[in-house]
Amino acid sequence: MASGRQIRVGPVPVGGGAPVAVQSMTCTRTGDVAATLAQVRALVDAGCEIVRISVPTAAEVAAFARVVREAPALVPGGPPVPIVADIHYDWRLALAAIEAGAAGVRINPGTMADKHVHEIVRAAAAARVSAGPGLPEAPVAIRIGVNAGSLPRDLRERATRDAPGALVEAASRWAGQFEAWGYTDYKLSVKSSSVPDTIAAYRRLADRSAAPLHVGVTEAGTVWSGTIKSAVGIGALLADGIGDTLRVSLTGDPVEEVRVAWKILAALGLRRRGPDIISCPTCGRTEVDVVHLAEEVERRLGSDPALAGSAITVAVMGCRVNGPEEARHADYGIAAGAGEGVLFDHGERVGTLPEGQLVDALLALIRGDR
Ligand code: SF4
Fold it and tell me: For a substitution probing ligand 1, which of 277, 278, 279, 282 has the most ligand atoms within 8 Å of its CB?
């Protein structure tokens, strides 16, 4: 079911069997170049592979161009992080973003005149974006992002009784139009703030189109509730093999979006980035403060630059019943007893320590200092 066609957003291959790419969006004022670059850097450090930036008016075009120019220096020696311009209504902003070196543009063609959408497609097809050392240049990618608020007149009535069907029909029409114009470097999105509608729309779209799909639940909510909605909606689609890029949309720090995205990918066994903590839910047998231990292990692994990106499994278990078995199967583990715990290194017991020393000893073990 995964999309058959591959495109590239700068250096990042999208679709056609490429790993599902993690995307997010800055929330700084685009005109504040220093703040935007700092946020791009934070997103990249967290594992964001495609960064989208709003270009709301012509006043932001120069700042956007500077961010595009300076972003490659954020990843010395690595491929440049592709910067995508988010454009609404004003087709000339899309042309300006392409001119400024955007790796992609996200448009909702329903908010523009057809002839202006055609101008954007022409400019994207003609432009070439650096994909980094050793890689051929790519055309500018376009995401056709349709939404319920800007459907063609004849689909509006249908949307009241079949919202997913109307979104899919609108996206499919635009995909057909882009191909009639000779342009295939596009991906599609049909996000909704309703999880069931999002799942239904993407399933139907995946049946109709071989184009790469960008998946997400839009306006999902705060970090807590948005994480749950995104995990359910995006997770259901990814489990079906649907989705080539994803964005978790949260009301909060976009770095959280990236962390959640990776957790969703890891939970499905699709990609791994960063430690996976296995910790027991605690019960009447718990003999140490497992909640504190697990949170401390997760916090310290996440804030250690040498370990934050490592794909290790760490078990933190609360008693002698299930603890040793889980801890033995993880890369590293703690199996607690009464006020103390046994440390495991790849299945081997390497020591028993008082509860207060367990986290330090575990971190030292993982770093190879023990
Ligand atoms: S590992 Fe032990 S303490 Fe933790 S939930 Fe299971 S039985 Fe309870």
Answer: 282
